[in-house]
Structure formats: C-alpha cells, structure tokens
Amino acid sequence: MSTLLASAVAHAQSPVGGGDGETTGAAPAGTPAAAPTTTPASTVEAAPVESSSDVTEKDHKTYYFVGARYRGTIIPKFMVNLFVGEGATFYSNMFGIEVDIRKDHFSLIPALNYIEYGFDGTLFFDKSGKGAEGNEGNYSVVHSNLAGIYLTLDLLWSTQIHKHIDFEYGIGVGVGALFGNIYNNWATKTPQAPGTTTVQSSSGATFYECTAASNAAGSGCNPGSHTSPDPAKVNGYSEKTWAGGGSVPNIFLHLALPQLGLRIKPVKQMEMRIGGGFSLTGFFFGISGDYGFPESADKPHTAPTGSYHGPVAL
Questions:
Q1: Is 38 domain-assigned?
Q2: Residue 278 domain-assigned?
C-alpha cells in the first residue's frame, strides 16, 4: 500500500507527458497568441512610361488629332474648253480646321473650310451662240469674287509602308454655302471709256467690256447680237443666284474621288498629310498638320485581394 501511494505521488509531480521534462500539451493559460501574417489588400502595377518616339497605334484603340489644312484646286483650261471657248486655267485656295478620329488604320476627318473662287477678268466664247467666232455677241468678259464655306468629311483607309509613313486612300464628301458675285459683261472689239477692262483673245484680238448697250450693228454691246438679249449684260452686270432665279448656285456639293496621299507621323503626338485627288471642281493637292491629344492610359493591373489563412485565437 505504501508503495502504490509513493508511485502515485511521484507521477503527479512529473511533467505532463513525463519522461524528459518537455511539455507537449496546450500552452499554459495567459500565453499571448502569435500575430497573424497577412498579404496586402491589393498590388498596383505602374503603367510603363511610353516614349514620344514610339508611334505605334494599338489595335481597337481610338486616337484623336486636331489641326489645320490647306488645299489648292486647279481647273485646267482643257477642262474649261469642254464647255466654252477661250477661258483660262483657274486656281482656288482652301483653308480649314480639321479633327482626325483614327482607329484600326482608318481615319474619319470632319473639317470646316473656307474656299475662294475669285479670278480676274477672263474672256469666254459661247460655243452655242449665234454665228461663229466672228460674232462679237458670243464673247463675254467674266470675273469673280465668289467664295464658300464648306463642311466636309474625309474617309481614309491606310496601309503602313514605313514605321512613320502610311499610304492613304479614300473619298471626301461635303456641302458648301456660296456667297459673293460672278460678273458677266458682254464684250466688244470697239474701244470703250478709259479704264474699261480689256482682255486678249487667243488669236491676239483685244476685247473691251461693254459699258452700255449699243445699237451698232455687229457690236458685242448690241443686244441683237446675243442669243439672250435680256437683260443687257453691261456695266458690271452681276449674275443672279439660284435663289434669285439665276444660274449661280447658293449651295454646292463636294465630292473627292479618289483621294490619295501619305500620312507621316514623326512622333507620337504629331501627324502630317500630303495628298491629292480629283473633285467636282478639279484636281487638288493638299497638306495638313495635326496635334494628337494625350493618350488615355490603359487600366492598371490589380492583383487579387489577399486572404488570411492563419490560426484564429478564440
């Protein structure tokens, strides 16, 4: 009995688990729990800084440019002579502001343009008039200060031929409002008052603008020499517009087909164009320069939100 009691007391005084003094059970009461390890809620990757010399345009991304343009239009004399005799080669200037909305090698370019159709006194011969070239009643001296405001839209596709150069092709459409005057005066070989406009025919003959109607037989100032004697087109006669029942249009359409050229992009924020084509008013060539709006940054990449998987202290 005394032996069992001594053994029980010795076992009670030994460490839990016995044997070598190490404790393998739960931590004693009052011991602080270990701090949990956590991952950051999110990790943001900074967008790479793009160089201004990188002119690459990403697929499916829209780019915006704004700038100015110039176009010159030529109507060669041979085209004029399809309708009337004499005449000349005419040249007009156009200035405008434009916006280029570009995506996937395609540019949509709306523009607001001012164009002038003015020219000095020019001799014309009416092929459908009475008689032949010997009839002065078939000749007129015409000059113009006509101009217009056009709203146009270019649709241009492009193919890259160099890192900085694209070949472009497409069409242009638009509509314009015209203003100003076309002055159409009968012409005669009979000298008129001093200071009257004079022009030379292709054969070297001198013609004068008629300052007043005349009854002189064979004179270009005689209404009877003309197929349309009324009204008398003398002394700075201004042709009426469509709105007034005349032949000068108030509205004119713009159609350029084809339209060809090169788009040059030397740096990320700049583009230039040179090109040309054929329009309703003749052959044209043009240049433009546009500034590109800063590109919107791509959305930064956000890592998944971290989660805590450590022990939970109760």
A1: no
A2: yes
Average pLDDT over residues 95-103: 98
**Residue 275: per-residue pLDDT:** 98
**CATH code, domain with 258:** 2.40.160.20
Q: What domain count does the chain have?
A: 1
Whether residue 25 is contained in a domain is answered as no
**Residue 313: inside a domain, yes or no?**
no
Domain that holds residue 183: 63-292
**Own/partner pairs for 237-242, CB < 8 Å, 24+ apart?**
237/183, 237/184, 237/185, 238/181, 238/182, 238/183, 238/184, 239/181, 239/182, 239/183, 239/184, 241/178
User: Which of 111, 110, 107 is CA-nearest to residue 169?
Assistant: 107
Strand-pair partners of 248: 241
- State the Cα–Cα distance between residues 74 and 80, nearest whole angstrom: 11
Are the beta carbons of 96 and 111 closer than 8 angstroms?
A: yes
Amino acid at the residue 55? V
pTM: 0.76
Task: Report d(CA 232, CA 128) in Å as an integer.
Answer: 18
pLDDT at 134: 79
